C-alpha cells in the first residue's frame, strides 16, 4: 500500500485566485485595503454563493412541498437537492439524517429539548468541556433547570487542551450525553473528537459535536466519527447566515418528538389529534430558509472543489507564521497554545484592553474580533476579561498576518509598551 503523501501548501498564485472569488475582499476600509481576520465569527462569501441565492429569487422563488405548480416543484427540488449535497459533504448515510436549522445554536437547542429533556431524570448528568461556546452551555443549563439534572464540566489545561484523563473518569453511570466542541472558537483548540466519541460510546453515552468552528477547516465524516449528533452553521463555511445543519443518526431522529409545531412538520391535523411528518421534516416547522439552503449547498460545493485538506494546509501554515510573529511581540500573551489547533490566535497585551486594540487595528484596515467570544468561562479560566482573536480562512495570506503585526506595533506606540 502506497504511503499517503502530505497535502501541499498552495502557492501564492493559487491563494490569489481564491481571493478573486470573494468580492468583499476588494473593499477598502478607512482608506486602506481590507484585511479580514474575523472568520471565526463569520466567513466571507464567494461570488458563486451570492449568485446561487440571487438566482433562486430571480428564477425559482416559491414555497416548497405540496405545491403543484412548476415554481414550487423547482423550489422543492432545489431545497431537497441541497439536503442531499449536505449529506454527501459530511458523509451521512441518508439525506433524511440532515435537519435544516437556523444555525448551530438552534441545532443544539433542538437536541437538548427533543432528545435529552424527555430522557433525563433528577441527578442525571450532562457532560461538557470548559472550552465551550455559550451555545453549548446555556441549552444544557436550561435542561438541568427543567429536570433537576446536573451539568458537569471537563477541565482544560493551561495550553487550552482538554484533560482527557478527567474526561474518562467523569463519564459515569449517570452521564446521559456528552456535548463537546470539535474546535474551540476562543482558543482554536482542536479536540481529538474521534477518540472522545469512542470513549463515550464504550460507556453507552451518546455524543453531540459542536462543529461550528471545524466545518470550514477540515473534512468531517460523521460516519467515520460515529457521532450521534453534529451541528454547524452555514455562515461559518462560506455560506449565508440564517441557515444551519443538524446531522443526527436516523434512529435517534425517529425516536425524537418534534420541538416546534406548525406547517410542514405534519401529515394530518384534526382538533383531536395531529399526525407528525416523517424525518427530517417533522423538525422543520414553517416556511424554511429555502434560499439559504440552496446557497449553503453552493458554498459546500465551492469548498469541496478547492478541497478542505488543501485549504487546511494553507491555514495551518498561516497559523504557524502568525504564532511565531506574535510570540516575538513584547508585552503580548497568547491565550490558547494547544498543539492541535485550527487557524485561530487569541491574545492579550499588557495595559491595553482588547477593545482598544481592536479599534486601533480597525483604523489600520485589520478586522479582528475582540471580547469574550461568547465563551465567558474560558475568559475566567485565564483570568482575562477579553481577548483579541484573529482567525484565518482559505483566502487569507501571510501579507495579511504582516498587516496585523504592523497594526499591533501601532498599538505599542500608542500605549507606550
CATH architectural designation of the largest domain: 3-Layer(aba) Sandwich
> Can you tell me the number of structural domains?
2
The largest beta-sheet arranges its strands as 4-10-9-8-7-5-6
Proportion in β-strands: 15-25%
**CATH superfamily membership of the largest domain, which one?**
Type I PLP-dependent aspartate aminotransferase-like (Major domain)
Q: How would the global form be characterised?
A: globular
| Count of alpha and pi helical runs | 14
Name the poorly predicted regions. none
CATH topology of the largest domain: Aspartate Aminotransferase, domain 2
Q: Measured on Cα atoms, how large is the radius of gyration?
A: 22 Å
Topology (elements, then pairings):
Elements: H1 12-20, E1 28-29, E2 32-33, E3 35-36, H2 47-60, H3 70-90, E4 98-101, H4 104-116, E5 125-129, H5 138-147, E6 150-154, H6 164-170, E7 175-181, H7 193-202, E8 207-210, H8 222-225, E9 229-233, E10 244-248, H9 250-255, E11 266-269, E12 274-276, H10 290-306, H11 308-327, E13 332-334, E14 344-349, H12 354-363, E15 366-367, E16 369-371, H13 376-382, E17 387-391, H14 398-415
Parallel strand pairs: 3-15, 5-6, 5-7, 7-8, 8-9
Antiparallel strand pairs: 1-2, 4-10, 9-10, 11-12, 13-14, 14-17, 16-17
Output the keywords.
2 domains; 40% helix; 14 helices; 7-stranded mixed β-sheet; Aspartate Aminotransferase, domain 1; alpha/beta
